[in-house]
From TrEMBL:
Full protein name: ABC-type sugar transport system, permease
Membrane topology: Multi-pass membrane protein
Broad class of where this protein is predominantly found: membrane
Any single biological process term in GO: transmembrane transport
ABC transmembrane type-1 domain span: 73-260
Annotated PANTHER family: INNER MEMBRANE ABC TRANSPORTER PERMEASE PROTEIN YCJP (PTHR32243:SF18), MALTOSE TRANSPORT SYSTEM PERMEASE-RELATED (PTHR32243)
Length: 273
């Protein structure tokens, strides 16, 4: 086999490094700009001679919280937690069944679950709002959480199915041989081994619910989530307030990804087996 020349090897390394730097810059530069201008003073922000502000203030974030962003952030947390609980209550058994049992129509059912995401939300927005008003759950965190659960459920089912499929079946069979029943095998063997991947899936579900804005804007008027509140209230504000709003939205996602990065790698390792 012909060996790669040093020049070609170095060129390949430079191209890979440049692509990695471009990808990192694509993600980090908008975040850095949002953080920078979220805390800049109005004088520095509107000064045409200053590209990078040098004076900073917390006043924009405080104003945004005083306008109702703190209540909206609390609603977002409640909705996201409810979404995780509901989607895992429904999706976990389905994912385990897809991973462990062979039954007629399994592949068609998987395709149907994926197909649930084909319909744009805007098509069902008005009927959904009408239904919610009749059921009495319009403008409630539970109503938004149910809608977010419907959106997250296909993701939870397919990802948990891949995670459970990565757990060796022989360990479960050994548990049955040593006297455990099906529930005991799941709770004492399968669940602990799948826990890192499930934690990462839960965090993905949290971020999906936290960032969703359209359906939350349609289904709420007073009890809005943070993205819906910012879409309605902060878009008419000065630019530095918009940057502060962007900072408040992106901060929890960054914190959760930072905390869960080890679990995310574990999840992708399991699902790619």
């Amino acid at each position: 086999m012909e060996e790669a020349s040093p020049v070609r090897y170095a060129l390949h390394g430079i191209l890979v490094a440049a692509a990695a730097a471009l990808a990192v810059a694509w993600v980090l530069v908008p975040i850095a700009i949002s953080v920078l201008y979220a805390f800049s003073t109005p004088q520095d922000y509107y000064d045409p001679n200053k590209v990078i502000p040098i004076r900073f203030t917390l006043e924009h974030v405080r104003d945004l919280l005083a306008l109702g962003a703190s209540k909206a952030a609390f609603n977002s947390v409640v909705v996201a937690v409810l979404t995780i609980v509901l989607s895992f209550l429904l999706g976990l058994p389905a994912g385990y069944a897809f991973a462990r049992f062979v039954f007629p129509g399994r592949d068609a059912l998987k395709l149907l679950i994926v197909g649930m995401r084909m319909f744009p939300i805007i098509v069902i927005a008005v009927p959904l709002a009408t239904l919610y008003i009749r059921l009495g759950i319009y403008d409630t965190p539970l109503g938004v959480a149910l809608a977010h659960t419907a959106m997250a459920l296909p993701f939870v089912v397919l990802v948990t199915s891949s995670i459970f499929a990565g757990v060796p079946r022989e360990l479960e069979e050994a548990g049955l041989v040593f006297g455990l029943n099906r529930l005991g095998v799941f709770l004492r063997i399968t669940l602990p081994l799948a826990l890192p991947g499930l934690a990462a899936a839960a965090i993905f579900t949290f971020i999906m619910s936290w960032n969703e804005v359209f359906i939350a804007s349609i289904l709420t008027t007073l009890n809005r989530t943070l993205p819906a509140f910012i879409l309605v209230s902060a878009m008419a504000a000065p630019d530095f307030i918009k940057f502060a709003a962007g900072f408040l939205i992106v901060l929890p996602a960054m914190v959760f990804v930072f905390i869960a990065r080890r679990y995310l790698i574990a999840m992708w390792g399991i699902t790619l087996r």
